[in-house]
Amino acid sequence: MRPPRRSGDRLVRTYVVTSGRAHASRNHFDHITLVALSTSAVHLSRAQLGPEHHMILDKLAGSAQSVAELSAHLHQPVSVLRILLADLMEFGHITTRQPIDAADPTRSLLEEVLAGLRNL
Amino acid sequence: MPAFATSEPSPKLRGDERTAKILVAGHFGAGKTTLVNVLSQIEPVSTEEVMTSAAADVDRTSLPDKTTTTVAMDFGRLHLSDQLVLYLFGAPGQPRFFPVLEDLSVGALGALVLVDTRRLAETYPILQLVEDLKLPYTVAINAFDGAPVIPDERLREVMDLDERTPLVWCDARDRVSSRDALISLVSHLLTLTPEAVR
Fold it and tell me: How far apart are the CA of A34 and the nearest CA of chain B, in angstroms?
């Protein structure tokens, strides 16, 4: 882990990026939720979107990404990404794939993970 | 079979893969970043989280922003199959980062707790943290050059480990060794997961 850093280092404060909103309107973006461009994304107007929204869509054009990866690429905290992604979801630009509910993992999932690790 | 070489370009994600995560916990300098990076199939990356909520930020616009700290978390991605992707998160060990860890731990399969035997005392709060998060875990002693080799029984005793909690040795710089530590964790998780009732 790196030493903590003051958020004041950021050029633009987080509340500017999120237009002052503190919570995502759709609270379903885990660190490992996969985000992909929707099939209709190319046809949608991006006029209402901010620069960070554009950065996300540009990043997704190459490959789907997890929320954590988008957070790393945009240098924005995951909490900020959740809000930006909720906007994109609302406008229909993206789709998401929820992570496996691991609170109660099945044996078959764990066996699959184990087999995958052994094959590495 | 997944590529096991970091020199290759990051494998692309389609977006319909299933994802799971494991936390790599440990005190500062225990080797979390090393282990995550040696296993990851993507370039080393880190995400950040702010310790105060964005709402608190808004309320403080007229004040110097001194209460907000940012914590960076290194993470990696492993393609375990065409359909299954595992993320490893290097979890900051300081108790003050508990809220960040709590958020991160939701949905995690378990935790690998890395330990340097020269800094055993720093491991106790980490173990407490992982137990508070109710994450099943395996302890992996990262065998640093020159670190004292302490018998497993003694390590278990000083860390007050449950007899069922696995204790393994690893070299976080070594892929196979790090992978084996994860295998030990996942094998442990399997023992905790009952057969499906039909």
Answer: 6
Residue B7 lies in a domain: no
Provide the ipTM. Answer: 0.85
Of B70, B104, B195, the CB nearest to A6: B70
Measured in angstroms, the CA of B44 and the nearest CA of chain A are apart by 10
What pLDDT does B81 receive?
96
Judged by CB atoms within 8 Å, which residues 67-106 of B form the interface with A? 68-75, 77-78, 80-81, 84-87, 89-90, 92-93, 103-104, 106
Question: What is the C-alpha separation between B172 and B162, in angstroms, rounded?
Answer: 24
List Cβ neighbours of A75 (8 Å cut-off, separation of 6 or more): A10, B48
> CB under 8 Å to A39, separation ≥6 — which residues?
none
Query: Which residue in B1, B47, B134 has the most chain A C-beta atoms within 10 A of its own C-beta, making it the best mutation to test that interface?
Result: B47
Higher pLDDT, B198 or B136: B136
Number of domains in chain B: 1
Predicted model pTM: 0.85
Q: Is residue B99, in this structure, part of any structural domain at all?
A: yes
Could you tell me the CATH number of the domain that includes residue B40? 3.40.50.300
Q: Does residue B4 sit within a domain?
A: no
Ordered by start, the domain boundaries in chain A are 7-119
